[in-house]
Design a protein that fits this description.
40% of the residues lie in helices and 22% in strands. It has 474 residues and is an alpha/beta fold. The chain has two domains: 265 residues, Aldehyde Dehydrogenase, Chain A, domain 1; 190 residues, Aldehyde Dehydrogenase, Chain A, domain 2. The strands form six sheets. A seven-stranded mixed sheet has the order 15-16-17-14-13-19-20, with helices on both faces. Strand 16, helix 12 and strand 17 form a beta-alpha-beta unit. The radius of gyration is 23 Å and the shape is globular. Bound molecules: adenosine-5'-diphosphate (ADP). Adenosine-5'-diphosphate binds next to helix 7 and helix 8. The site of adenosine-5'-diphosphate has 17 residues, from helix 7 and helix 8.
């Protein structure tokens, strides 16, 4: 049992004013593994005040100082990678392949920002004016539970890179993971008040952060419905917003695709992070000309993917994060059948042999049309819909016919042809043939997948605003 009873304010772990407790569970066993004491609005106000005091210190740091802080952070995270992986395994239930990537990625996020700061032009000219990119003030960050380390690291890295201070409200379900990461960050010795972390719920801690007049900007990763509440709340104080939201990403299998590689790639993309990934390729677009062959391959490959406890290295799909979410995903599996789609594999209930834990059967629907709710709404679990298309133009049309526009995938034996398709897709990122993660590429979505971009110079742009000084001509 781990009882998290402190929040992190002004460089110290302190007891929050809030007294409410929230239980923490192991999703693979459903056992209670700890509690977290939740902060309240007063805790946010105290944290924001600390961040406000730290802001001028941060804003006046040099590039070299910011880079040094970022490298200290990546070193601190690497040193504790084993502990972070263990906490993520227990509290989140992600399979080993994902927890390993996540710890590695968390450290490299700081290094990537350090490299970005190195080349970013804070001082520019426009016409005859002198322009400087200035940080906005205190940043408020709100993060979800599906990649707790990565999101906290991303928000913090951008704050440091831009010369801002930050108050983070992480997902309360991830409090053990948050505590370990913040302990690492504390060890890196940042200026007091630069980072403040307040555990709490969205409607209490999140709401105060999004309305507090001393918060200049909100950076949020989470669902589109929560983002709409946040955007409205942030309106009166005119906060700047970066919103990284949901997706219903298409994976287009072109008719020349090599199925030996395309099918495993499509499945790993769709079932990424046990389906709890905003970037998951959940609509698989299949050419009618190869329909039967592809359906059969999708079914047999999907049934080979092992679902189970995260400590088993063979496991590719772990449990869903919590009971409420499990119920929600189950309801979508029922909905797909009610809407007239056909179960190619999977279905309701737990996979055989797993009676405990929030495990879901990896599910693929065929006979899906793009106007069904299972094709339009984000399910956030291992549930994929297969939609058939006639030709490339039809595939592009279906892919773009979505309220979302976060990510898209193209699979083909011909990279030039795949690139021509990619150029027609409305998505923040288009990945060809399972290309590896690019930590420098901008990340974010079109349409209801969000506002703004994170990562690299595009990410820094969102945390900065230009001030131009116009001098009289001599
Ligand atoms: P999830 O279903 O993944 O929890 P949400 O978008 O609801 O997705 O949550 C993402 C983050 O947003 C969490 O930290 C959550 O507490 C927070 N959140 C939810 N609702 C609000 C809100 N009304 N105001 C501010 N933050 C919120």
């Amino acid at each position: 049992m781990r009882d998290i009873d402190k929040i992190y304010v002004d460089g110290a772990f302190v007891t929050p004013h809030g007294t409410e407790q929230f239980d923490l569970f192991n999703p693979a066993t459903e056992e209670k593994i700890g509690t977290v004491r939740l902060g309240n609005a007063e805790d946010v106000r105290v944290a924001v005040a600390a961040a406000k005091r730290a802001f001028p210190v941060m804003a006046s740091t040099s590039k070299a100082e910011r880079i040094a802080m970022l490298h200290r952070l990546s070193d601190a995270v690497r040193l504790k990678a084993g502990d972070l992986i263990a906490a993520m395994t227990e509290e989140y239930g992600a399979p080993a392949y994902f927890t390993g990537f996540s710890a590695q990625n968390t450290a490299s996020i700081f290094d990537v920002m350090a490299a970005t700061v190195e080349t970013y032009e804070f001082d520019r000219t426009a016409g005859s004016s002198v322009v400087r990119m200035l940080p906005l003030g205190v940043v408020g960050a709100i993060t979800p539970w599906n990649s707790n380390f990565g999101f906290i690291a991303t928000k913090l890295a951008h704050a440091i890179g831009s010369g801002s201070s930050i108050v983070i409200k992480p997902a309360e379900q991830s409090a053990i993971q948050t505590q370990l990461l913040v302990e690492c960050i504390h060890d890196a010795g940042l200026p007091s008040g630069l980072l403040n972390v307040v555990n709490g719920t969205g409607p209490v801690v999140g709401a105060e952060l999004t309305t507090n007049p001393d918060v200049a900007m909100i950076t949020f990763t989470g669902s589109t419905p929560a983002a709409k509440i946040i955007q409205r709340a942030a309106l009166d104080t005119m906060k700047r917003l970066v919103l990284e939201l949901g997706g219903k990403s298409p994976t287009i299998i072109l008719d020349d695709a090599d199925l030996d590689t395309a099918i495993p790639t499509a499945l790993m993309t769709g079932f990424a992070n046990s389906g709890q990934a905003c970037v998951a390729g959940t609509r698989i677009l299949v050419p009618n000309s190869r329909r039967d062959e592809i359906f059969q391959r999708l079914k047999s490959e999907a049934e080979r993917l092992k679902v189970g406890v995260p400590t088993d290295p063979q496991v590719r799909i772990g449990p869903l994060a919590n009971a409420k979410h499990w119920e929600r995903v189950q309801s979508y599996i029922q909905l797909g059948q009610q809407e007239g789609a056909t179960l190619l594999t999977g279905g309701e209930g737990r996979p055989g042999g797993l009676d405990k834990g929030w495990f879901t059967r990896p599910t693929i629907f065929t006979g899906v049309s793009n106007d069904m709710r299972i094709a339009r709404e984000e399910i956030f679990g291992p549930v994929l819909g297969v939609i058939t298309y006639d030709d490339d133009d039809d595939a592009v049309k279906i892919a773009n016919d979505s309220e979302f526009g976060l990510q898209a995938y193209v699979l083909s034996s011909d990279v030039a042809r795949a690139t021509r398709i990619a150029e027609q897709l409305i998505a923040g990122r288009v990945v060809i043939n399972g290309a590896p993660h690019d930590p420098y590429a901008p990340f974010g979505g079109f349409k209801q997948s969000g506002i703004g971009r994170e990562i690299g110079a595009y990410g820094l742009d969102a945390y900065l605003e230009p001030r131009a000084i116009l001098k009289p001509t001599a």
